[in-house]
UniProtKB/TrEMBL annotation:
Pfam families: ABC_tran. Coiled coil: none annotated. SUPFAM superfamilies: P-loop containing nucleoside triphosphate hydrolases. This is ABC transporter ATP-binding protein. Residues 2-232 form the ABC transporter domain. Keywords: ATP-binding, Nucleotide-binding, Transport. It comes from the Bacteria. GO terms for molecular function: ATP binding; ATP hydrolysis activity. Belongs to the ABC transporter superfamily. InterPro entries: AAA+_ATPase, ABC_transporter-like_ATP-bd, P-loop_NTPase. PANTHER family: ABC TRANSPORTER, ABC TRANSPORTER, ATP-BINDING PROTEIN. The keyword Nucleotide-binding applies.
């Protein structure tokens, strides 16, 4: 759905983006991560055909940004990081206005507006003035707006920025719903955990260069060379820690909160002998599970020494 080759944008001597290569298939959710000024917006604006690159190629669903921008605009929904809303419009009027701009006419228009409102959970605000909405609601309205023409590809620039934790979670839920609808999504953020459980691919951009471009699973594999376990017993944790620490399958172990966190030596990927040792030593084992690595830990390990 998206193919980018050697994409570069220069402002004078500054490379806003430099030699970006990327391919996304239908249904991919690409988390585009990078600090402020790294080049995320530039990349998205070029894909949205709002900005010309200095050189390089980009295609959306096979359409070139140079020769078929109209076709691309029909397929994409681009939500910029900052967008204006019109002061004296009600929510439903705002959507109808944009639906008209997309040439959605007749009774269909109202139906579509109502259904996107429902999707972003704003039906109860349909008669409210757009200026009265909270930032989280405004972001959801912005999403509703880019969904009006049922685009296959969504380019979402920092949809969760400036939101409180609750509103962030709502946006995440919404993105999951869109993912389940089969949309191809490029979503940017400068905060990685925000995207952790939504995307299947991630790209990390630093000073205009895509320094990491991979699928989430292989990031996890790359980082997870050794198995890490979380262990809990219903009796004496200190004596259980002693058993774990001295077990030949364990490289290191420590007490972390209510659990013991144990890292196994590299060759061991079966914790059953350790479990047997704990039970054999008379401990009442209540939990022994593989610690779930999160994308944030993976990110830190992956970019160690690359990003500053
Ligand atoms: N019109 C412009 N003229 C000159 N420099 C620009 C222009 N637009 C962007 N830049 C520069 O290009 C670089 C990339 O900017 P871009 O907006 O793509 O970053 P970003 O990753 O989206 O950052 P943010 O998270 O702050 O939106 C920055 O150094 C920025 O200052």
């Amino acid at each position: 759905m998206i193919e980018i080759r050697g994409l570069t944008k220069k402002y004078g001597d500054l490379f806003a983006i430099k030699d970006i290569n990327l391919e996304l298939a239908k249904g991919d959710v690409f988390g585009f991560i990078g600090p402020n000024g790294a080049g995320k917006t530039t990349t998205m604006r070029i894909l949205a055909t709002l900005l010309n690159p200095t050189w390089g190629e980009a295609y959306v669903a096979g359409h070139s940004i140079y020769t078929q921008p109209k076709e691309i605009r029909r397929i994409i929904g681009y939500m910029p990081d900052f967008f204006g809303v019109y002061d004296d419009m009600k929510v439903i009027e705002y959507l109808e206005f944009f639906a008209a701009a997309y040439r959605i006419r007749g009774p269909e228009r109202r139906k579509i507006c109502e259904s996107v409102l429902e999707l972003v959970d704003l039906t109860y605000k349909r008669e409210a003035l757009v200026t009265s909405l909270s930032r989280g609601m405004t972001q959801r309205l912005g999403l509703a707006r880019v969904l009006l023409h049922d685009p296959q590809v969504l380019l979402l620039d920092e949809p969760a920025s400036g939101l409180d934790p609750r509103a962030r979670i709502e946006i995440r839920g919404l993105l999951k719903e869109l993912r389940n609808m089969g949309k191809t999504i490029m979503v940017s953020s400068h905060i990685l955990p925000e995207l952790a459980d939504i995307c299947n691919k991630i790209g990390i951009i630093e000073k205009g260069e895509l320094i990491v471009n991979t699928d989430v699973e292989s990031v996890m594999k790359q980082v997870r060379q050794q198995m890490v376990l979380k262990i809990r017993v219903a009796d004496d944790m200190q004596s259980a820690l002693a058993v774990v620490s001295s077990h030949p399958s364990v490289e290191s172990a420590e007490l972390t909160g209510k659990d013991i966190t144990a890292t196994l030596i590299a060759e061991v990927d079966d914790p059953s002998e350790l479990a047997a040792a704990l039970i054999g030593a008379g401990h009442r084992l209540t939990m022994l599970k593989e610690d779930e690595i999160n994308l944030e830990t993976a990110f830190m390990a992956l970019t160690k020494g690359i990003t500053s």
